Amino acid sequence: MTDQVTISARAKVNLILRVLAREADGYHGIETLFCRIDLADELTAVRSPAGVELVVEGADTGPPEDNLAVRAARLVLAATGQRFGVQLSLVKRIPVAAGLGGGSADAAAALSAVNGLAGNVIPGHELLQFAARLGADVPFCLSGAALALGWGHGDRLMALSPLPTAPALLVCPQIEVSTAQAYRWVDEQRAGAGQRRAILLDREGLGSWSSVARMAGNDFETPVFGKHPEVRSAFEALVGTGPLLCRMSGSGAALFAVYRSARDRDDARDQLGKRHGRVIPSETG
Q: Which of 72, 103, 120, 134 could form a disulfide with 110, with the two C-beta atoms 3.0–4.6 Å apart?
């Protein structure tokens, strides 16, 4: 049985994100097309006598008690009988509270890593149940899929054949958007509005970047852009670089664009400079 496990915790973007009605439990349903990117945190779990400790290098992730990776580790330890503790070391590269699933990726990595320390005694389908309890993006991050349709609360997934790997660019304005607040903005915007338009998603329509680009959209964009004009300005600047596809990820404020070539992506990075926030080259898949 191993005493240390290290896992790369990869970020995600939402190529499609539709916010559905608020349900009886107070949460909204979603329909989304998740896509993995190569930007990643790194999480190392080391066996310890007892408890869960967290050391973070990079960004401030807030109190350890609120950290999703800590909560994930505790779920696994409780399920395996608290036979040992864990020291978590987290190298943060994914921007915090940006809609890129960094906290969710860390949680998924912690579930897998601590289960590995326990000899992988918890089967995969049970780990997915833990993931669903932690957040809407955690099941996808745990799944290992490069591309997947998600619905419900993100706990129902259909893995799809990955799209061709493509160069991407992330633009992260220096602003944090509260997910709960973003949902409230969507509700306010829709007050008194009619039913949403229908949309058909099929495997053929999700098989190429050009077809995905025609359907791509994010229901959080309009309200977030209205509340934060600087995010709108960054989005317009990113669209101006001529990508195949450009959207906001999650509830924001990170924006992403997918390009035909690495040269186009690098030219876009040079064109944008640092006027709209942090710019991060990446790849899909």
A: 72
Q: What is the dihedral of CA 143, 95, 254, 213, to 10 degrees?
A: -30
Active site residues: 12, 137
pTM to 2 decimal places: 0.93
Reading the chain (285 residues) residue by residue, the pLDDT tens digits are 789 999 999 999 999 999 988 777 777 889 999 999 999 999 999 999 999 999 999 888 888 888 999 999 999 999 999 999 999 999 999 999 899 999 999 999 999 999 999 999 999 999 999 999 999 999 999 999 999 999 988 889 999 999 999 999 999 999 888 888 999 999 888 876 655 666 777 777 788 999 999 999 999 999 999 999 999 999 999 999 999 999 999 999 999 999 999 999 999 999 999 999 999 999 999
Do 206 and 236 contact (CB within 8 A), yes or no? no
* Domain ranges, residue 90: 4-159
Are 39 and 146 members of one domain? yes
- 123-128 long-range contacts (CB < 8 A, ≥24 apart) are 126/79, 127/76, 128/155
Host H or E run for residue 130? helix 124-134
Indicate if 137 and 23 belong to the same structural domain.
yes
87 and 20 in a single domain? The answer is: yes
| CATH number of domain containing 34 | 3.30.230.10
